[in-house]
Amino acid sequence: VLVESLLVFAVVLSVHAVVWDRFSWCAVALAVQAFYVQFKWDRLLQQGGAVFQFRGAANSGLLPASMVIPLLGVVMKERCRAAGIVYFERFGIVVASTGMLLALFLSVLAVGITKPVPTNTCILTGVAGSVIIYTMKHSLTVSEVIEVLEVLLIFVYLSMILLYLLPRCFTPGEALLVLGGVSFVLNQLIKRSLNVIEGRGDPIDFFLLVAVVGVVLLGLFFTVLFIFMDSGTWISSMFFHMMTAVLGLGVIMPWLYRLIQRNPLFWLLQFLFQTQTRFYLLVYWTFLAASACGVVFYQNAKRSSESKKHQASTITRKYFHFIVVATYVPGLIYDRQLLYVAAVLCLAVFIFLEYVRYFRIKPFGQTLRHLLSLFLDERDSGPLILTHIYLLLGMSLPVWLFPRSCAPKGTLPGAGALVPYSGVLAVGVGDTIASVFGSTLGEIKWPGTKKTFEGTMTAIFAQIIAVALILIFDSSVNLNSSYAWILASVSLVSLLEAYTTQIDNLLLPLYLQIMLMA
User: What's the rounded Cα separation, in Å, for the pair 211 and 171?
Assistant: First the structure.
């Protein structure tokens, strides 16, 4: 935990040294108080007094999770300020303020339920909170303050509902990241739906917002419904499929139509087959999806013949990382907008299939339970299987969160040109190579972890080679001699992979994106 915290502080101070404004000072204050409060959360988890049931075999992860959204907002603000885009500079300030307020809420919650009350930590949290609120008071307009408070309110309600319904699925830090992100997306969708101006906004952004909110609302609806009826019967399954169609065609499609001012299905078909390159990419991705399904069926057939082997090995699970890299790299090089929309569609399909598996919806629910049980690891201790969804999110978030409006030529200068590749580098290359080489050749373990020195060093080396290949094949990337910063960023994130107990597929790409954007 101490080494993980030290690495997070290194990232915070690196961003602070580049930005050096009131918000970067607030980020430093937030990091200091989150470091102390993290130990209170860890003690609550060990004693079973943390209100909700969180994922075991991991620490609270409060410090690394608390810094992600604020730092993303700070570096986004700085990039958009340099580009002269005032609207998105203000948006970055709202993102940073929202992240700080959500992290403070979790900290106050931990301090409030700790017995006896930790006086020193209370004082530190109060000081950090006062600094952050004072800064927000002098930086945000009234409408922006209301927007931040709306996100906090949505987060509180979502946390109470989902953490109760889904025990042992998240650590406190992961809950902050996932539920905080969903709360922000829901608030943005409500805000934009109430202020629709024809022709304003990119349809693919609206597509992401509606898809995320739609699948979350779908899950909440069926979770409440199946409290009162058995979800495993044919009648319930038919009702599930019927209501999914009704909600999709009767709520989500009209909502999207209102935002983009055109038929969503016609727009999507026109978008997907607009150019010949997109058609070739879709055919190639279909082949890769079939290959991934083939790996699942082959491994399950192998399990049936070898009764002693119950779980897939680490190397077997990393096959999917290689397939995802092969999926994302051509999309990043040839058509990022298509990759953006395809990733949104995949996320919606993945979450829908998880609902089918979780609720045992006929005819495929039980089959999915059997097929996916082979690939479970210690992080899938709750009722949901989320590792494959986290892998998709880790690869997609750098593409979705890339500030296109602040990059007039489609790319950011210097190391920022690699931002869309953050998921590919951190998860697709770094995490995969570290796991494969660490588990097969590693002998020297990092103190206090199961990760090896050889795995981490190989991961850093592999990511540097990947950057060189990106420079060769993607002509839009121009690093402007920022090689030392890239090496430091890759090294910090690779060390964080060795020491964190959080979901690395989700955390590592975001930290690499923060460093590259800074």
Answer: 25
